[in-house]
Design a protein that fits this description.
2 strands, two-stranded antiparallel ribbon, globular, about 575 residues
């Protein structure tokens, strides 16, 4: 049987010229037909990709030069480059929001997987704190304008509107699949992504300098409290000038500086998270989504899911972890600066983590077993958001994995003869490795499960039905039928089965609730200045100060981002359970 000669080919339904060049002839054409392309041609993506690569490499070289050899760059080239990049990116955002977005047909499709409610809410929270940080930076830098370069004083005035525009763009248009002005749109998104990456890198280097100053204070190398007679010596003159230049002796300046230090981690997390969402927008330029495509997971609030599902044990256990973590955080910050209580501070920190991480590992292992017992079908098809989620989980985990392995080597080398500190650090490193591996397995398997518990049974029934009877149906109609079977409304029996809340669903929700609260606390502790890897001295003693300093400051931001990203992924698993 020949199909309808007037029926379009696979390519023509997506607007591809290849599908309209030749009519469909012959019954064998259906068997060798290629899948429909879902992504735009890579040539235009290549232009914007190369543009972003060159911008990032140039900016990284300038930022690294400013951090390692600041005396060599006399005209503040890194800050000027970042200001220029933020200005161009802001101009593109204004062009898109005020003019291009209003053009007809610019966004005919939406990627419903992009910009989920938990991710967007967390991003907006980070944006609010980042804007508040700009206020503190303005007060701090204006009070120190006599000894700060003009580019650095001007930076928060440019960064504040840049943050506001980007936050609105991601909040309102992160799901857009843009189909007009593709080259300009891709280039603008890539410039915006490059700006976020470079601003994050610049924040990491500034945080590195801050941690170095804190470490020098702990080692007695800071001269900020030097007496007036000692200040006249040439050895400490430079240190005194740099310290006094950081802040004057006024209470207002000290307040602005303290707010700057407290809110700094939120700014770094905003740029990482915004960069990830911009990458999804860049991949979605030119993407075509089928008309019947809808998100599998209903956009519900997590609190409603927890309340209606009767989640209790995970919340109670997670609340205990949060309460104990807050106490540990306060005690560590108070005791670590006192020589007599310093060992007790390390003991409290490691003891807390050695109690929490085994519980998290057991929960992740139980969750993996529940996934296997549930036997849901795997979600098929290419999804850039899902692929990015998995890539970010694995890439961000590399920071903590690297720190754990390097700390493990240092503890094995010098920790055995250093009392209990080496043994605690060794145990902490081993448990961190185990917990990270199991949590990644649990989250990645959960993200790829089909939301319909009966999807695998439907696939089996459909395959048996296909073997019994093979009607001559075109590929497009067959694909639509398969999609309707998997993504359509559940039958009455399925609804009744789902309404009973099976134990597998309840178990996954309890596990996710506990892991969410635990990851929140493990994110708060390092994000707000608790870094025992700096202060216990084992890594510095074995690897040397400079090498260990670089390793820790590259790994710590990634580990903080990993915890935050894990919270978002676990919220999605909780909703989709």
């Amino acid at each position: 049987m020949n199909p309808d000669p007037g029926a379009p080919g696979a390519g023509s339904s997506w607007g591809s010229p290849a599908g309209s060049e030749e009519p469909v002839q012959g019954s064998d054409h259906r068997m060798i037909q290629e899948p429909e392309p879902t992504w735009a041609p890579s040539g235009r993506s290549l232009i914007s990709g190369l543009l972003g690569l060159n911008v990032v490499l140039l900016g990284a070289a300038l930022v690294a030069g400013g951090a390692l050899r600041p005396e060599g760059l006399k005209h503040q080239e890194p800050q000027v480059f970042l200001l220029l990049l933020m200005g161009v990116s802001s101009a593109w955002m204004l062009w898109y929001l005020l003019w291009a977005r209003k053009q007809p047909g610019i966004c005919p499709h939406k990627d419903h997987h992009a910009g989920g409610i938990p991710v967007t809410v967390v991003l907006m929270l980070f944006a609010v704190f980042s804007l508040l940080l700009c206020v503190f930076r303005v007060g701090y830098l204006v009070s120190m304008r006599d000894c700060k370069p003009a580019a650095k004083v001007l930076a928060p005035f440019i960064e504040a509107p840049f943050l506001a525009l980007q936050s609105y763009l991601l909040w309102a248009h992160s799901k857009d699949c843009i189909h007009r002005h593709k080259i300009i749109t891709r280039s603008g998104l890539m410039l915006l992504l490059s700006a976020d990456l470079l601003l994050w890198l610049n924040a990491v280097t500034e945080d590195t300098i801050h941690e170095e100053i804190e470490l020098e204070k702990a080692d007695g190398l800071d001269f900020s409290n030097t007496s007036a007679s000692e200040a006249g010596s040439p050895d400490v003159a430079g240190s005194l000038n740099s310290t006094l230049c950081r802040c004057a002796a006024s209470a207002a300046c000290l307040t602005f500086r303290k707010g700057f230090e407290v809110l700094y981690p939120f700014n770094m997390e905003f740029y990482l998270m915004a960069g990830c969402m911009l990458y999804v927008m860049w991949k979605n330029v030119g993407r075509r989504v089928s008309p019947g495509h809808r998100p599998h997971v209903a956009q519900k609030l997590t609190l409603q899911v927890v309340y209606r599902g009767g989640v209790l044990y995970g919340l109670v256990a997670g609340a205990l972890v949060l309460a104990a973590g807050v106490a540990v955080f306060i005690l560590y910050q108070v005791w670590v600066s006192r020589p007599r209580l310093r060992p007790t501070a390390f003991l409290v920190f490691y003891g807390y983590h050695l109690a929490v991480m085994p519980a998290m590992s057991l929960c992740c292992l139980a969750g993996v077993l529940v996934h296997r017992l549930e036997r849901r079908a795997s979600e098929a098809g290419h999804n850039p958001t899902r692929s990015l989620d998995v890539t970010l989980l694995v890439a961000a985990a590399l920071g903590q994995l690297a720190l754990s392995y390097f700390s493990l080597v240092a503890a094995l080398a010098v920790g055995t003869g250093d009392g209990h500190l080496g043994e605690l650090d060794l145990s902490y490193s081993l448990l961190s490795l185990l917990e990270l591996m199991l949590q990644n397995i649990f989250i990645i398997e959960g993200l790829h499960r089909h939301p319909d518990p009966l999807a695998k049974r439907k696939q089996r029934r459909r395959s048996i039905f296909t073997l019994k009877k093979k009607p001559a149906v075109p590929i497009q109609e067959e694909r639509k039928t398969n999609t309707s079977l998997l993504d359509g409304n559940m039958p009455a029996a399925a609804k009744e089965h789902a309404g009973k809340t099976p134990w597998t669903k309840r178990a996954i929700q309890e596990i996710c609730a506990f892991l969410i609260l635990s990851n929140v606390m493990l994110w708060v502790i390092p994000a707000f200045g608790v870094h025992p890897q700096f202060e216990n001295g084992l890594g510095k003693q074995f690897f040397g100060f400079s090498a260990w300093f670089v390793l820790v400051n590259l790994g710590q931001p990634l580990s903080v981002f990993y915890r935050m990203h894990s919270v978002g992924a676990l919220m999605e698993l909780l909703i989709a359970a």
